[in-house]
Write a structure and sequence with these properties.
Elements (H helix, E strand, L loop, with lengths): L1 E5 L4 H12 L3 E6 L11 E4 L5 H8 L6 E4 L5 H10 L5 E7 L26 H15 L4 E6 L2 E2 L7 H11 L1 E6 L6 E2 L2 E2 H13 L4 E5 L6 E2 H12 L7 E6 L1 H6 L4 E2 L2 E2 L4 H7 L5 H5 L7 H12 L19 H8 L1
Parallel strand pairs: 1-2, 1-4, 2-3, 4-5, 5-6, 6-11, 7-10, 8-13, 14-15
Antiparallel strand pairs: 9-12
Helix pairs in contact: 1-6, 2-3, 3-4, 5-7, 5-11, 7-11
This protein binds NADP nicotinamide-adenine-dinucleotide phosphate.
Length: about 325
């Protein structure tokens, strides 16, 4: 199949390209050329997808059977590919759980839950509007994968990476006591990428909440898995310093960013409750969390400890002064 990876030079997109090549497809990437080169054996096309004329120029005369789109960051970008790729047999668009209007304050009960309807540049409304633009152009040939949290090797977000690097420093590690039993779920970047390619091959269409099962692990187990993965690389033995939500709030710990993936218990219960029956029905695999964390650590341990997150992504992690106050 002649497959176009829109965003194929990014993190998830890079895994999509590798998977498509492994499965014998002819692959082209479409990107602006800022995030790095396309791998060998791939036809690299360059355009800013926010500019329809640029996309038309880059795609002129390029035969495409199927598309995996991992670079949806604007409605204009969705419009340009919807316009120029409307004839393809299959198009998989990576959206986000953030497209749901009532999430994270309410659970996601299924793919029919309401998504944002008003236009806005904000991430969730932008994803929902992009889905609609693509659905109009590609009726019956569009798969919308509303991804949950993606983790795995190459992760540029610095979220799980912070936990692993913190374990490497060792000593007492502040952990959110009220959240340790909280079920949490993730999707391995390689599982998602390979599955997207298969969906395009089989011309799967519809909407899927593309993340792991709510019962796949808990926050506390994830932290144990991180400690085990770092293992002998830790500079000192790692011990837990559990602090409850009240103590974390009093110390000024910002949910989600200071302790990645932590939300106060009441908010966490709704936010992590995402129905994934659609993903399981469609065969989205879910490898053991131990494998994902081990492979992320293998990638991360070769990198500088203080490496800044890629692009303009926010920096995650507990500020040293806040940590010191919590441990005092
Ligand atoms: N990380 C998560 O947990 C998570 C959760 C839910 C959904 N998602 C979604 O997953 C997708 C993939 O995320 P990622 O972290 O793999 O993305 P990424 O690494 O930032 O890659 C983005 C790709 O899109 C290209 N791109 C960006 N803007 C472009 C433009 N205007 N024109 C043409 N190409 C453009 C980039 O290349 P150039 O910069 O060279 O153009 C790159 O190839 C995104 O759609 C994201 O919203 C992620």
């Amino acid at each position: 199949m002649r497959m176009l990876a829109v965003g194929g030079t990014g993190w998830l997109g890079g895994h999509v390209v590798r998977s498509a090549l492994d499965r014998g497809h002819e692959v082209a990437t479409l990107s602006r050329g800022r995030s790095g080169p396309a791998p060998a054996g791939v036809r690299a096309l360059h355009a800013d997808r926010d500019a329809a004329a640029d996309v038309a120029r880059a795609l002129a005369g390029v035969p495409v059977d199927g598309v995996v789109d991992t670079s949806g960051y604007s409605v204009a970008g969705a419009r340009s590919t919807a316009e120029h790729l409307a004839g393809v047999g299959s198009y998989a668009y990576v959206s986000s759980i953030s497209a749901y209007r009532d999430w994270p304050s309410r659970p996601v009960n299924g793919t029919d839950d309401p998504t944002f309807t008003e236009g806005s540049d904000e991430y969730g409304p932008m994803k929902a509007a992009s889905e609609r633009v693509l659905a109009r152009a590609l009726a019956g040939r569009l798969l919308v994968a509303r991804a949950g949290l993606i983790i795995g090797p190459g992760d540029p977000t610095g979220r799980l990476a912070w936990w692993l690097q913190r374990m490497r420093r060792g000593g007492p590690v502040v952990v959110p006591a009220d959240c340790l039993d909280q079920p949490v779920a993730f999707v391995d970047v390689r599982d998602l990428a390979g599955w997207l390619v298969e969906c395009v091959e089989t011309r799967a269409a519809g909407v899927v909440n593309a993340t792991g099962d709510p019962g796949m692990t808990t926050y506390g187990h994830l932290l144990e898995v991180c400690r085990d993965a770092v293992g002998g690389d830790a500079q000192r033995p790692v011990t837990w310093a559990p602090r409850d939500d009240a103590a974390l709030a009093a110390a000024g710990v910002e949910p989600w960013t200071h302790l990645p993936f932590w939300l106060p218990a009441r908010e966490a219960r709704a936010a992590w409750a995402v129905d994934t029956a659609s993903a399981r029905d469609r065969g989205l695999p879910s490898r053991p969390i131990e494998d994902t964390v081990r492979d992320l650590w293998a990638w991360l341990r070769e990198r500088p400890v203080d490496a800044a997150p890629a692009g303009d992504r926010p920096r995650f992690g507990l500020p040293p002064a806040v940590e010191a106050a919590l441990l005092a």
